[in-house]
Design a protein that fits this description.
The structure is a single chain. The protein is about 55% helix and about 5% strand. By secondary structure, the protein is mainly alpha-helical. It folds into three domains: about 5-30 and about 40-75; about 95-180 and about 270-295, Cytochrome c-like domain (Cytochrome Bc1 Complex, Chain D, domain 2); about 185-270, Cytochrome c-like domain (Cytochrome Bc1 Complex, Chain D, domain 2, Orthogonal Bundle). The chain is elongated.
C-alpha cells in the first residue's frame, strides 16, 4: 500500500470513529427543552399513539461506547490503520504459513513411509491415493475436470496418451515444475492458404483420416521441412519436447480441419503451471501418484468412469 493510500485509510477510519463518538454524545445529552413534560416529534397515529423525542437509555449508550473502545483496542493490536502493523504483529500471511506448516508436518509424518518410495509404491497405498485424489480435486480439477478427463486444450489424464511422457517420474516432473508447450504460428512461413490447407490435409492423412490425396500430397514437403523437427517425419511426436503424436486419434485441440488449420496459423502455447511451491513436495507426490494411477487402471477417476 502506498503512503497516500495509507493516510487515506487512516483518515477514513479516524473520521468514522470520531463521527460515531460525536453522534453518541450529541444524542445522549439532555436538552433544556427536556425539563418537564416530554417533547414529541408531532407524529400521532390512530388518534392516541404519539412519538416522543427522548434520549436513548443510558445502558444502551454505554454499550455503544464499549464498542468504540473495543474498536480502538482492536486497531491498536491488529493491522487496520494503513501501514501500521499493530502491536500484536499479526498478519493473515503469517497465520496461513503457520497453518500450512502444521499441515505439511502432519502429512510428512503420516506418509513418511512412502515419501521416498517410487511413485508406483505411493499409488499402491490406498490412503495415500485417497489423499492424492483430494489434492487433485482442490488444485487440478478446474482445468482437467473432476473426472480428470480434461477438455479441449486440457489433457485427459485417464488414458495412456502422454504428451510429455507417461512414466511416473515424468508425471511427477510435470506436477512439480510444470510444462510449457510451444507450437509456433506458421501462417507467415507457409505464405499461402493453399499451403496451409495442404499441410492440414497431410496431417489429417497421418492420423488415418479420409482426405483428398491430391490436396494432402503437396503438404508432405512443407511438413517435413517445418514440422518434422518436432513431430518427426511420420508425425509420431517427441515427448521430450512436448510435441504430440499426430499419427493417432487423440487431438488435444480437436481433429477437424478448422482446428488443425488454427493450430498451424496461430500456434498453441499450452501451459501446465508448476506446483512445487504451491503444493510442497509431499502433496505434489501424492497428487502425481493419483494422476499416474488413473492411466494404469489402479484407481477410479475423481468423478467415476
Amino acid at each position: 500500500m502506498s503512503l497516500p493510500w495509507s493516510f487515506y485509510v487512516i483518515a477514513i477510519v479516524a473520521l468514522n470513529i470520531l463521527g460515531c463518538a460525536w453522534l453518541l454524545w450529541w444524542t445522549a445529552k439532555r436538552r433544556s427543552t427536556d425539563a418537564g413534560a416530554p417533547q414529541t416529534t408531532g407524529h400521532v397515529w390512530d388518534g392516541d399513539l404519539t412519538e416522543y423525542n427522548k434520549p436513548l437509555p443510558r445502558w444502551w449508550i454505554n454499550l455503544f461506547w464499549l464498542t468504540i473502545f473495543f474498536s480502538l483496542a482492536y486497531l491498536a493490536w491488529y493491522p487496520g490503520l494503513g501501514h501500521f502493523a499493530g502491536a500484536g504483529q499479526w498478519s493473515s500471511r503469517a497465520e496461513h504459513d503457520a497453518d500450512r506448516a502444521r499441515a505439511d508436518q502432519l502429512l510428512a509424518t503420516r506418509f513418511a513411509a512412502v515419501a521416498d518410495q517410487p511413485l508406483e509404491a505411493v499409488a499402491a497405498d490406498p490412503q495415500a491415493l485417497a489423499t492424492g485424489r483430494r489434492v487433485f480435486l482442490h488444485n487440478c480439477a478446474m482445468c482437467h475436470g473432476s473426472d480428470a478427463r480434461g477438455g479441449k486444450g486440457y489433457p485427459n489424464l485417464t488414458d495412456d496418451n502422454w504428451q510429455w511422457g507417461g512414466k511416473p517420474e515424468d508425471v511427477l516432473a510435470s506436477v512439480l515444475d510444470g510444462r510449457q508447450a510451444q507450437m509456433p504460428p506458421l501462417a507467415n512461413v507457409l505464405g499461402s492458404e493453399t499451403k496451409i490447407a495442404a499441410v492440414t490435409a497431410y496431417v489429417r492423412h497421418l492420423s488415418g483420416q479420409p482426405v483428398s490425396q491430391a490436396i494432402a500430397k503437396p503438404g508432405r514437403e512443407p511438413f517435413e521441412g517445418l514440422c518434422a523437427g518436432c513431430h518427426g517425419k511420420e508425425g509420431k511426436g517427441n515427448p521430450a519436447m512436448g510435441a504430440p503424436d499426430l499419427s493417432d486419434d487423440y487431438w488435444l485441440y480437436g481433429d477437424a480441419s478448422g482446428d488443425i488449420e488454427d493450430a498451424i496459423r496461430k500456434g498453441h502455447a499450452g501451459q501446465m503451471p508448476a506446483h512445487r511451491t504451491l503444493l510442497g513436495p509431499v502433496r505434489a507426490r501424492l497428487a502425481a501418484a493419483y494422476v499416474w494411477s488413473l492411466s494404469q487402471g489402479a484407481a477410479e477417476p475423481a468423478g467415476g468412469r
